[in-house]
Amino acid sequence: MSLIVQKYGGTSVGDLDRIRHVAERVHRYRDQGHDVVVVVSAMSGETNRLDALGKELVKRPHAREMDVLLAAGEQVSIALLAIALVARGVPARSFLGYQVPIRTDAAYGRARIESIETEALREAIADGVVPVIAGFQGVTADGALTTLGRGGSDTSAVAVAAALEADECEICTDVDGVYTADPRLEPHARRLDTVTFEEMLELASLGSKVLHPRSVEFAGKYQVPLRVLSTFVNEGGTLITMENESVEQPLVSGIAHTRDEAKITMSGVPDVPGVASRILGPISAAAIEVDMIVQNTGADGLTDFTFTVKRGDYEKALELLAPVKASLNARRLEGDASIAKVSVVGVGMRSHAGVATRVFDALAAENINIQMISTSEIKISVVVAERYMELAVRTIHSEFKLGEST
Amino acid sequence: MSLIVQKYGGTSVGDLDRIRHVAERVHRYRDQGHDVVVVVSAMSGETNRLDALGKELVKRPHAREMDVLLAAGEQVSIALLAIALVARGVPARSFLGYQVPIRTDAAYGRARIESIETEALREAIADGVVPVIAGFQGVTADGALTTLGRGGSDTSAVAVAAALEADECEICTDVDGVYTADPRLEPHARRLDTVTFEEMLELASLGSKVLHPRSVEFAGKYQVPLRVLSTFVNEGGTLITMENESVEQPLVSGIAHTRDEAKITMSGVPDVPGVASRILGPISAAAIEVDMIVQNTGADGLTDFTFTVKRGDYEKALELLAPVKASLNARRLEGDASIAKVSVVGVGMRSHAGVATRVFDALAAENINIQMISTSEIKISVVVAERYMELAVRTIHSEFKLGEST
């Protein structure tokens, strides 16, 4: 008998039939003798609907009140799931963020969990009641409602699991695990039985939408065993493990991709200290997120500076840099909004040289030009023209034989 | 400078334009130097939508969780109104029931307000902030959410006004006051400048939908000056007063009607003690509300027993009585679902005999048959065939010259 925290995303509770299905699934776990704590997102589309309401009402809605507005979404879904459970004879009780309470700081719209009091939850569990907790929301020390930002329900679930020292935190979603690549791009993609927290963190932040990076980070920090699995299929799933649990690490675990990028190059700028911050200063002041940054070694006292931003920020970033170009007397300011990033992730590459070379060789063999490169200990990212993205994913997937069982 | 509590119903906050309009209206009161506290219902249709969701999910949804579900409606509207106010430069803050807090008993779905703590509200007011309070909801001593039942937001507003000792409680709605009769039936209906609490209570409980009876009762008990007025028109309104404020009472203040009724007659039952409870017992056991009850004096040891129920309960009531008819050996069980009730209300009739006679005579002159009669100190109700309802209202309206200014 274990204590299992299960998180159900918006798609899993997207309509009444699905809510009934989730109730049945929770019921089955209970029948197997487990204690279950459930964390639920808003019904799919609901958070967007509420968000749009507030933003249609006024141009810059007050952040504190936006959180009150958005938090209503989870209130509906926890009530409905608790109703469905009770109707099946499973004692259940809904918990809003403030009722747990899940304490956060006061950064409305992107609050961070500071602590979770477990007394009320433990009492419910001891009474045989399934707590159905609103994800995504919390409460400040002053009693104000907060929300944790997109993907916040994953973080809520992991935080609850950590606070309760649960045996496992299941992220129940509409995919049945973490794959070696996006199966829509690469038909030979294979589901991983296990993946390390570090790898998952890279995959998550690289646009593999299975888990929110913050929740993976949180799970790693508090060593919460995390499993990604399907709400709708009764098998499979991927367990996210501590690195040392697997004896032999595969060189490469998975390939992530994202097409939502654009690159900007300012070339022929003086190769002197302070140039990077003069270029990126206005960008970060405008709260535009910069991803990859590459500066080539200069020649003739001049250098080229390239970075990537989200595609939606592309036009604005170009505008902001026009005056900088002039003041730096740079040769050219240019960009490309049709690029994609492909990333190869694996803890195994930490101890094996040559992974990068194999990636570059494989791409070269397919005549795919690499526009930018960035690496970390367990990740190699390359920027390619968007039209080569699928080919790049399949080429690397095949190079490392990821479709074959290990 | 006064402290005014304003309650806006679902129609008044039914879409974003209307919410902006309400914000403008609150702003105007502030500019006139008043302190304003706002109580808001859910956007029109939202409570019904949530209610239907819960009831479609399972046959008998858990009452506690239904309240969590329903309370989400007001959460959305207070957040939106607070956003609209802040965007206009009016400092505002939303208050959920538990944040005020508005304490209630634990009768989910029809909770009663036990107390309202005013500290947080007074602090906000002192800071120049407009509190925007969720109507219809409260919190138990255990921290569970509750709702007050239909019309609960009116009650919330009156209770808040009483707790804050406000100078006036404005019920802002889509009609501009209380009329001598429904203007859709009687074109000569006139808006009353004042009406007493007692009269309002009778009018409200008789289906004149302007105010919920509980809120009127509450306002009378705590002597909260209550005004019904339009959110959309900047004049008019009806002040609900203590009786002794008007020197001269009109004989009759208004005429209410309701067509949502049905009558059931069991005739030829033994005229012995206990018959009434044998007939009404199964009806009340099925939680069917009985309105008027009439039992004629018997002859030959037999009597006829007639009562009215809501039209929606008619078929079920008839079914329940079939076995009772048999066991009482009654002569007949019959009913009529096409009746209407017309009620004449006025504190003046308390001290003036003859009002009833004038009502009956006027109806007789129009050949309208009166099927049932019931009276209270300040009210005479008659049941007539539904097709005569409009004529009955107009006839009595004209008999008491209600269309003419006093």
What does this entry look like structurally?
The structure is a homodimer of 406-residue chains. The first copy, chain A, is α/β, with parallel strands linked by helices. Chain A folds into two domains: 3-174, Carbamate kinase (3-Layer(aba) Sandwich), CATH 3.40.1160; 255-399, VC0802-like (2-Layer Sandwich). The first copy, chain A, is 35% helix and 27% strand. Chain A has helices spanning 16-31, 46-57, 63-87, 119-126, 152-164, 197-205, 213-222, 275-285, 314-328, 355-365, 389-399, and strands spanning 3-8, 35-40, 92-95, 102-104, 113-116, 130-134, 137-139, 145-147, 168-173, 194-196, 226-230, 238-241, 254-270, 290-295, 302-310, 332-345, 372-376, 379-385. In chain A, the strands form four sheets. An eight-stranded mixed beta sheet of chain A has the order 3-6-2-1-9-11-12-10, with helices on both faces. The longest helix of chain A has 25 residues, at 63-87. The model of chain A has no long low-confidence stretch (mean pLDDT 91).
List the helices and strands and how they pair.
Two copies of one chain form a homodimer.
Chain A: E1 3-8, H1 16-31, E2 35-40, H2 46-57, H3 63-87, E3 92-95, E4 102-104, E5 113-116, H4 119-126, E6 130-134, E7 137-139, E8 145-147, H5 152-164, E9 168-173, E10 194-196, H6 197-205, H7 213-222, E11 226-230, E12 238-241, E13 254-270, H8 275-285, E14 290-295, E15 302-310, H9 314-328, E16 332-345, H10 355-365, E17 372-376, E18 379-385, H11 389-399
Parallel strand pairs in A: 1-2, 1-9, 2-6, 3-6, 9-11, 10-12
Antiparallel strand pairs in A: 4-5, 7-8, 11-12, 13-15, 13-16, 14-15, 16-18, 17-18
